[in-house]
Prior knowledge:
The protein has helices spanning 2-18, 21-41.
Amino acid sequence: MVPAIALGAFVGVRAAGKIPEKAYRIFVMVMTGVSAIMLFLT
Length: 42
C-alpha cells in the first residue's frame, strides 16, 4: 500500500506542474466530491 501511495504522490506532483491551474482546480474539486460520495456509500 505504501509504495502505491508514494507513486501516486510522485506522479501527482509531476502532473500538477504540467496541468494549467484552472484545470487542476477543477480536477481537485471533482475528485474531492467523488471521494466524499464514496465515503458516504461505503
